[in-house]
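User: Fold this; tokens only.

Assistant: Input:
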Amino acid sequence: MEKAKGVKWDLSFLYDGTEDPKIEEHLKRGDELANEFVVNYRDKIASSEFNTKMLMEALEAMEKVYSFATRPYHYAMLKFSEDTQNPQNQALLAKVQQSFTVTNNKLVFFNVELMKMPDATADTIMADPEFAHYKHWLAEARKNKPYTLSEKEEQVINLKDSTGKSALVQLYEEYTGDFDFEMEVDGEMKTMTGEEVASYFTSEEPEASQTRL
């Protein structure tokens, strides 16, 4: 654990830094693709005429949306986890979360319509050998049919999570990120972070459970 102190992730394969203009470009492109997706697929998914080819094309289009929308999101999350006290990391995460929620909400209709798809249509698609790769995904998704709300209600939940649960978790991490704890390990008192202390909870070494704060 001591060896890990000061270690930083190399995230340059994602972006050059929190000010990289590509972050904004990817957020914008993801939102543009989401708008195109809405135009191309709204009110078509639940149709009895919807078929395997159309659904596979829709999934491919959605993957393109998220390839842009989630890249900044994951980068921001990793940067924040790396240093929760860095104002730039905090600001980037807040910005990206807000943008991602807006983009994601535009696609909520897809899942709602997928649940409204006639059982006969869904069964036909899942029986198609061309759909074999996605069969399990669709079968599992359809299990949520009884619990799926309207599009507006699902969107409200997304918005609530971005300003409620997720915001509270982020606040907790920011507040506790620089906490230090005195802990006795092998008879020696050491100063550790919360993450270092938590690692002892799942240690494979039985004596680790006998350490004391």
